[in-house]
Amino acid sequence: MKTFHSYKFSLLTVTFLLLVVSGCGDRLPTGPAGSVIMPLAKGNMWIGRLTRYSEDGTVASTTSDTVKITEAIPWSENGEDALWYFSEASGVDFLTMLCRNTDEGLMVYSCFGVVAPYPAAPLDTSSTLRGEVLIPNSDDPNNPFTAELVTATRVEDVDRNVVVPSGSYKAYVYREKILEPDSVKFTGDIPWKYFVPDVGPVLVEWYQGGSPETGRMTKKWELVELQLH
User: Across the strands, what pairs with 68?
Assistant: First the structure.
């Protein structure tokens, strides 16, 4: 992997491309009482509100933003069958995904990794996810460097009190943890995701620099109405 010495750079985008999945059976979730961290059925909708903040912390804009499961896609590999679901979202970009529930939690097709471990304990970390990160090039702004980014999802809490327009919940809290490169300081936005078992996402907070301790909140998505089928 390339070394970028003392670069202080922003995380511009991390895009996991759809990859070929091999050997993925239809594992059933085994959460408490058979619950799942995100109910997956065609037509399920999480109607939300997306708020963007200025650098001084004031509200810059507020828009409606809905996550909806639009397709159910059968998949067969090596004689094993699975059903994947495609969800679309205009502003909560990581919730536009092809996914399914497994006994480890919510798995995403593009990285074949668990992005929301469930059931889990605080500080549990899911399987490693790999992608590509663009790094600004001060010598040639039009040609950024590229490098491999290795991240994992860490469970920060499993019983966090959350109040959003749709109600009050006890939520699992997930954050992306950057594993490699470990010598780099990212100043880009990293989401903290709040999921409620059998409800799904209720809150997402993006922090510049990665956490409430190291950076300001840049935007927030809150659940306003839930429609499950």
Answer: 45, 88
CATH code at position 96: 2.40.360
Contact, 16 vs 153, CB < 8 A?
no
DSSP 10: -
Q: With a threshold of 0.85, does the pTM exceed it?
A: no
Q: Is residue 46 part of a domain?
A: yes
Calpha distance 147→2 (Å, rounded): 7
Q: Please identify which residue in the block is written with the tokens 């966090």.
A: 160
Domain span at 65? 9-17+28-227
Least Cα distance to 93 among 65, 115, 60 occurs for: 65
Round to whole Å and give the CA distance between 47 and 165: 10
Cα 147 to Cα 20, 180, 184, 187, distances in angstroms = 22, 10, 12, 16
Q: How far is CA 129 from CA 40, 202, 227, in A?
A: 22, 23, 30
Domain presence at residue 144:
yes
139 occurs within a structural domain: yes
205, with CB counted inside 10 A (0-12, 13-18, 19+), is buried
Q: What is the CA radius of gyration of the chain?
A: 18
pLDDT tens digits for range 179-228: 665 545 555 677 899 999 999 999 999 988 767 776 789 999 999 999 99
Residues in the chain: 229
- Into how many domains does the chain fold? 1
Asked if residue 23 belongs to a domain, the reply is: no
